[in-house]
Amino acid sequence: MITAGDLIVCNFNDGATNTQGLGTTIVGLHPTAGATPYRIADSPLLQGCNSLTMLSDDSISAAAYSANQNPLIAPNGTVNTPFSADTFARPWGQAYASASGQSGSAALYISNADGSIDRITLSGDAQNTFTQIASGFCASGAPGGIYAPAGLTYDASNDTLYIVDTSSYSVVAFANVSSIGADGIVVQGQCGATSAPPTPVPTFSGASASSARAIANGGPLIAPLSAALLSDGDLIVANSDIGISAGQMPNLVVEVSPVLAGGFVGQPVQLDNSGTPGALFGIAATVDGAGNQLVYFNDDNTNSVMLLTK
């Protein structure tokens, strides 16, 4: 059903009551003005679908927070549960790493609302191994105000997984992520302040602690939630505005560089200027035929998908 270049959207809210965490649908959208969304899948197994990634065969892997599952949706819309034997803790973010970027098999990386990150290695759509590679990110809250590792973004050029740490207002990088073993990274999040984040910038221990670092923290980040990889290797990171204070500007996106000291590039950009915070949830980046950067994002305030161009 999906045309190359289409946007794939997970509905976290349900259509009947607009209740957060009760959505059960995945829809597609042609990236043209005025396009009408088309339904790809609808299933209770998708309840609380909040993030997704596409495998090389066009299967869709979806993090279903409320169903506490990570279903796999075939290109024809059939919802499968090949990972049902795995133990998740409210899946909240994910990224796909092809075999070309990994030191071996392709893999799914899934973050959970208990502050852990899992890796599922794959042969096609079939699971080889399930490994928890990290734990200890601060996590708290419920739909509408969840602090947990999110916005997973994988850079195949250097085998690095980026994690948006909503609780500490940080972006974290796991270098050589395919080589991180079981429980290889223990995040020292100092989570005593999870009732009133931001929590302190995390530090790391464990056998692979040297692979982990915070590349950006604080500043214009206000409970960041989602991210996408730009063509130059930087990230674009969107704020969720959970707990935003009076006087802070809502609905900002921030460019973060993994190589620049401090991490922040230029000034943040406000994508919704209505004054109502919390408009930004999902974000995706690509380039057009001329190599120009395109960024798609959803605006919850207007229930629309928007395009940011340079």
Can you give keywords for this protein?
single chain; 310 residues; mainly beta; 6-stranded mixed sheet; 4-stranded antiparallel sheet; 0% helix; globular
Helix content: under 10%
- Whole-number mean pLDDT: 95
| Class from helix and strand fractions | mainly beta
The major beta sheet can be summarized as: 6 strands, mixed
Order of helices and strands: EEEEEEEEEEEEEEEEEEEEEEEE
Uncertain runs are none
* Biggest sheet: strand arrangement: 8-9-10-11-15-16
Question: Hey, roughly how much beta strand do the residues contain?
Answer: 35-45%
What count of helical segments does DSSP give?
0
Distance between the termini: 30 Å
What's the total count of β strands? 24
Radius of gyration: 18 Å
- Overall spatial form: globular
